[in-house]
C-alpha cells in the first residue's frame, strides 16, 4: 500500500491521473491522503491476484487492461514505473532476503503485469 | 531534470550515511544488474561474471567512486564526470537505456541495506541524481 504514494512522490507527473483525489500538494499530504491509501490498497490487492494466478496473468488482467485504456487513459509506461517502485519497497522491507535472484524474479513479474495491463490497448 | 537544493542535500546525506560502504554497494549493484537484466552482461564478455567475481567487485568500486565523485561535486556533475563522459561516448558506448537499469539496482541496494534512509522524498532525489548522472555520461554520444 505504500507503493502508490511513493510513485506519486518520486514521479510527480503520475499525479495527473488523480486530480479528484484531493490534496496531493506535498509528500506528507500524499501519504496521509485517504483516497490515495485506499487506491493503493486496491492496486496491491490486484497485484496479489497476479501472484495467485501466475500461470494466467494475461487472463487475470484482461478486463483491467481494457479499463485502463478505454476509461482511465493511462500510458502503460506508468505501470513500469509502479513496478520499479514496488521492487524498491520490497527491497527495503526484506533487506538482505531480497537477493539478486529474488529481484530478478520480481522485476520479471512486474514486467509481465505491466505487459498484461497494456495488452488490450488499442 | 534539475536538482533542487533539497535534492542536493538529500543526495549528500545518503552518500554521507553510506560512507565507506559505497564500494561494496557498487559491487552489489552490478551483481544485481547482471542477475536482473541479463542483457547488461553483453558489455562484459571479457569479465568473469560468476558470483563473487573479483572483477565485478573491482568494477563496482569504480562505479561507486564515480557516483561519490558526482555527489561531492553535485553543483557541476558534468564537469566532475567529463572524462567518464568522453570514455562512454567514444569507447564504451553503453546504450543509454542501461543507465536506468543500473540506477534501479543501486536504489534496490540502498533500500535493502538502509530501509529507513530511503524515504519517498530521498528516493525521489536519489532517482533524479542517478538520472542526471546517466544524462551526463550519455551527453556526448551524438
What is the secondary structure topology, with strand pairs?
The complex is a heterodimer of chains A (122) and B (142).
Chain A: H1 3-10, H2 27-32, H3 34-52, H4 57-70, H5 77-94, H6 100-118
Helix pairs in contact in A: 1-5, 4-6, 5-6
Chain B: H1 5-18, H2 22-36, H3 54-72, H4 77-80, H5 82-92, H6 97-113, H7 120-138
Helix pairs in contact in B: 1-7, 2-3, 2-6, 6-7
Task: Give an account of the 3D structure.
The complex is a heterodimer of chains A (122) and B (142). Chain A has 122 residues and is mostly helical. Chain A has a single domain, classed as Globins (Globin-like). Chain A has helices at 3-10, 27-32, 34-52, 57-70, 77-94, 100-118. In chain A, α1 (3-10) packs across α5 (77-94), α4 crosses α6 and α5 (77-94) packs antiparallel against α6 (100-118). The longest helix of chain A is centred in the middle third of the chain and has 19 residues, at 34-52. Chain A is globular. Chain A starts with a helix and ends with a helix. The model of chain A has no long low-confidence stretch (mean pLDDT 94). Chain B contains seven helices and no strands. Chain B is mainly alpha-helical and 142 residues long. The longest helix of chain B is centred in the middle third of the chain and has 19 residues, at 54-72. The mean pLDDT of chain B is 96. Chain B has a single domain (5-138), classed as Globins (Globin-like). In chain B, α6 runs antiparallel to α7. Chain B has helices spanning 5-18, 22-36, 54-72, 77-80, 82-92, 97-113, 120-138. Chain B is globular, with a radius of gyration of 14 Å. The A-B interface holds A 5-6, 9-11, 27, 30-31, 84, 87-89, 91-96, 98, 100-101, 103-104, 107 and B 31-32, 35-37, 104-105, 107-109, 111-113, 115, 118, 120-121, 123-124, 127.
Amino acid at each position: 500500500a505504500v507503493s502508490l504514494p511513493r510513485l506519486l512522490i518520486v514521479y510527480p507527473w503520475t499525479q495527473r491521473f488523480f486530480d479528484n483525489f484531493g490534496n496531493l500538494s506535498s509528500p506528507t499530504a500524499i501519504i496521509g491522503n485517504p483516497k490515495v491509501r485506499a487506491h493503493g490498497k486496491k492496486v496491491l490487492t490486484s497485484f496479489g491476484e497476479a501472484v495467485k494466478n501466475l500461470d494466467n496473468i494475461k487472463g487475470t488482467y484482461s478486463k483491467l487492461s481494457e479499463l485502463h485504456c478505454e476509461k482511465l487513459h493511462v500510458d502503460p509506461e506508468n505501470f513500469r514505473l509502479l513496478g520499479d517502485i514496488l521492487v524498491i519497497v520490497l527491497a527495503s522491507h526484506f533487506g538482505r532476503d531480497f537477493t539478486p535472484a529474488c529481484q530478478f524474479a520480481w522485476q520479471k513479474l512486474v514486467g509481465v503485469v505491466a505487459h498484461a495491463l497494456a495488452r488490450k490497448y488499442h | 531534470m534539475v536538482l533542487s537544493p533539497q535534492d542536493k542535500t538529500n543526495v549528500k546525506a545518503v552518500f554521507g550515511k553510506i560512507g565507506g560502504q559505497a564500494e561494496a554497494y557498487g559491487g552489489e549493484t552490478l551483481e544485481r544488474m547482471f542477475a536482473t537484466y541479463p542483457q547488461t552482461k553483453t558489455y562484459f564478455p571479457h569479465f568473469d561474471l560468476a558470483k563473487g567475481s573479483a572483477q565485478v567487485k573491482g568494477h563496482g568500486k569504480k562505479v561507486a567512486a564515480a557516483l561519490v565523485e558526482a555527489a561531492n561535486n553535485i553543483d557541476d556533475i558534468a564537469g566532475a564526470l567529463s572524462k567518464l563522459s568522453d570514455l562512454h561516448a567514444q569507447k564504451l558506448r553503453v546504450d543509454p537505456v542501461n543507465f536506468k537499469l543500473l540506477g534501479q539496482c543501486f536504489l534496490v541496494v540502498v533500500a535493502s541495506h538502509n530501509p529507513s534512509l530511503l524515504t519517498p522524498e530521498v528516493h525521489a532525489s536519489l532517482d533524479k541524481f542517478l538520472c542526471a548522472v546517466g544524462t551526463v555520461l550519455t551527453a556526448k554520444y551524438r
